[in-house]
Each structure stands twice: as C-alpha cells, then as structure tokens.
C-alpha cells in the first residue's frame, strides 16, 4: 500500500518545514487510498489482510502526522499527546483482549493468525465523529502553511485551529473513555 510507504516522507517533510512537499505527498496518499478503496469495493476484492492493513495505514499516517505537527509546534503538544495516548491505550486493550481470549495453545503464531477471531470492535457514533474530526484537524494542519500562503496568516485562522484542536482533544478523550466503559464497544466471540 502506497500510503504506508508515503507516510514516513510526509512526516519528514512536515518535521523539516517542507510544507509543499508534505502537502503533495499527503494529497497523493489520500487520493491513492480513495482509489484503492473504490477498486476493492467495485471488484469485490475485500480480504482479511486488507481489512487489517487499511485501518493500520490510516493510523500510521495520522500518528506520524500528529508527531511531526507537534514537533513543529503546528499542533499543540498536549493535543498530540491526547490523540496518540488514546491510540496507544486502544492498542494495548486490543492486545490484552486478544491474548486473554485466545484459545490454548497461546503462541505468537496463533496470536497473529487473524483467522482465529476472538473479538469484534463496534465503533460507536462518538468514535466515528472523533475519527472524522481528527482527520479534518490533522489534514487541515498539514495544509495550514498552504492556506496561510494563499489567504495570509490571520488571527481568525489561528483561533479556528486552536478551538478545533480543543474540540478534537475533548472528543478523543470521550471516545477513548467510551471504549473503556461501554459494554457494547468490544464483544467476545466464543
């Protein structure tokens, strides 16, 4: 998947202040993701590997972009910490639930065998809204240097992203808590 290969370049270009290159590779990554998804749906080419790699590629892109934007002080560090902290927490939860529900023998090979299903994750509306807000926020911050170049830097634009960041931080926190406390978010298959 080109998105996985392109992501380190996006992070590098953001972190080193090469905004035009970052925007170009980011757009390329988004377009190829969209085209890839359309081809898979229209040609009925869905696979277990694709169902794992596609969201993993999204998370990789969002995480690398978040770190790079925070390093450049384009995104406040505390918003980046909330976004990454939630993802780390959810990853640990997934590993924990997978390991505890895996039937014996518990080997690494069986742990990584996705044909052995142990749980299903049911994202709620808050999680979906949060994902969309994160994508718009992070994507907007990637494009921010270009937007500022076209319309000029303004206090209104800066204030918009400050408020948007707080909203994203709050929805990210609420979404993370919903996975911890909701009985319907993660269901065991037995």
Automatic annotation (TrEMBL):
Protein name: Cardiolipin synthase
Annotated GO biological process: cardiolipin biosynthetic process
Any GO molecular function: CDP-diacylglycerol-glycerol-3-phosphate 3-phosphatidyltransferase activity
Parts of the chain that traverse the membrane: 9-28, 77-99, 132-151, 163-181
Keyword annotations from UniProtKB, A to Z: Lipid biosynthesis, Lipid metabolism, Membrane, Phospholipid biosynthesis, Phospholipid metabolism, Transferase, Transmembrane, Transmembrane helix
Superkingdom of source: Eukaryota
PROSITE patterns for this protein: CDP_ALCOHOL_P_TRANSF, PROKAR_LIPOPROTEIN
Family label: Belongs to the CDP-alcohol phosphatidyltransferase class-I family.
Keyword tRNA-binding: no
Keyword Transmembrane: yes
UniProt membrane topology term: Multi-pass membrane protein
InterPro entries: CDP-alcohol_PTase-I, CDP-OH_P_trans, CDP-OH_PTrfase_TM_dom, CDP_ALCOHOL_P_TRANSF_CS, Phosphatidylglycerol_P_synth
Broad class of the protein's primary localization: membrane
Organism the protein comes from: Clavispora lusitaniae
GO cellular component term of the entry, any: mitochondrion
Family matches, as PANTHER family: CARDIOLIPIN SYNTHASE (CMP-FORMING), CDP-DIACYLGLYCEROL--GLYCEROL-3-PHOSPHATE 3-PHOSPHATIDYLTRANSFERASE-RELATED
Compartments in which it is found: Membrane
């Amino acid at each position: 998947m080109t998105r996985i290969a392109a992501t380190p370049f996006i992070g590098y270009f953001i972190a080193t202040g090469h905004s035009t290159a970052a925007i170009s590779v980011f757009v390329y990554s988004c377009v190829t993701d969209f085209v890839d998804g359309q081809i898979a749906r229209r040609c009925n080419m869905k696979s277990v590997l694709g169902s794992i790699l596609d969201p993993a590629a999204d998370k990789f892109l969002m995480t690398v972009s978040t770190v790079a934007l925070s390093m450049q002080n384009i995104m406040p560090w505390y918003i980046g910490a909330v976004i990454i902290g939630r993802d780390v927490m959810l990853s640990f939860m997934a590993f924990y639930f997978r390991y505890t529900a895996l039937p014996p023998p518990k080997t690494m090979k069986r742990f990584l065998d996705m044909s052995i299903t142990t749980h299903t994750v049911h994202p709620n509306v808050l999680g979906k809204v949060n994902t969309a807000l994160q994508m718009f926020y992070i994507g907007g911050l990637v494009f921010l240097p270009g937007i500022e170049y076209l319309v000029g830097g303004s206090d209104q634009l800066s204030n918009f992203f400050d408020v948007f960041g707080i909203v994203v931080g709050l929805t990210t926190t609420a979404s993370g808590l919903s996975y911890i406390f909701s009985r319907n978010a993660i269901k065991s298959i037995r």
